[in-house]
Amino acid sequence: MASPSIITLTSPGSPAALASQTPQMDSFYGLTREALEAWCTLHGFSRVHAKTLFRSAYKALNPEPWSAPSLPRACAALLPLSLSSAPLRLVAEQRSGYDHSLKFLVGLAGGREVEAVLMPETKRLTLCLSSQVGCAQGCVFCHTGRMGLIRQLSTDEIVGQVLLAERWIAAHPEWLQQVRLPASTRISNIVFMGMGEPLDNVDAVIAALRILSDPFGLALGLSHISVSTAGHLDGIERLYAALPKARLALSVHSTDDAQRSRIMPINKRWPLTEVVDRLRTILGGDGPPVLLQYTLIRGVNDRLEDAEQLARLSQGLNAKINLIPLNVVGPSRLSAPSPEAIKAFRDLLCSHGLRVMVRYSKGQDIAAACGQLVRDANSQSGSSSSGET
Ligand code: SAH
Ligand code: SF4
Which residues approach ligand 1 with their CB closer than 6 A? Predict the structure, then answer.
């Protein structure tokens, strides 16, 4: 959404005239730096001010980025009249007693809510973001999938989750101490593993990636941002056409075509082998790494033959494999394999020389694990605060 053409205000004018002719303003936080440069040029200001605005908004977390002292007064006066910048609402935050992860319930315009999860690790601070309210893909093991797609998030709503989390961290220095991270730690990694299928909302996600990785803003390298997909091939093509250095996480979960179609209906449209063949061509064996995610479900995809198939699938890719024992949220017929079965599965993959991690979902006690964010947050207990950031 946030390409230069997003700027719908085509005629320069007085702030008052602009304010009266803008039924729906574009959002400041939905604009890439290039789009902001175009805005500056269009309104008669030097495009270098876009850099100042980016530094002020994303590095300094200034809630009124246009108040940066080096901006011309006319620019500072016009910008908030021409572009909207309402922050996302922090409806609730919930801390996990299990692994320090912290879930934010984020209020969107129109009353819907999504979730973002902050996951501190020894040397990293990762934020798991949502890209849609609900999801159209209907994977049988996924809580979000049961909601269906309610609506897409706009670029500024995606970027806004990062700002909300960054501002929360800045306002809670004691939290960094609690989780044993150095003071002034900022978010170092982003994963699009919250609610939604990001490549079903690929334009907004691409613009968000441009904004989040901008060197004058948060400057998160694209290698620090993983876009997780159930295998949306159109979206994969568009993502790599726009951003060849993007990092993808592919949710595999089953290598058997019929079975994968049963648990992940997207497989009927884009079968896994087609998706992986295409990735081999786009990325190659020594290209950017791709993360293969495999949720282990007892009796469904946890046999050693399945591990062999997964090893075969990884050939020709610079693949890393994440094994995620199923986290059961709510009533379900499905369960995770035993620790012994998980170990045997992992060992077989390792014997093929593959890089394998077993990852337990974060924040299980607050149902905050990526990809299984709760659909009715109002029914959750334990929210510890609310307010705006
Ligand atoms: N739509 C994208 C990103 C969001 S889901 C995708 O499917 O990749 C993020 C990850 O969580 C995916 O790998 C998804 O398959 C996984 N996931 C969903 N429900 C899960 C559950 N109940 N237990 C473990 N992983 C789950
Ligand atoms: Fe959507 Fe991903 Fe959940 Fe599947 S796993 S329903 S693609 S969010």
Answer: 135, 141-142, 193, 197, 228-230, 251, 253, 293, 295, 324, 326-327, 329, 361, 370-372
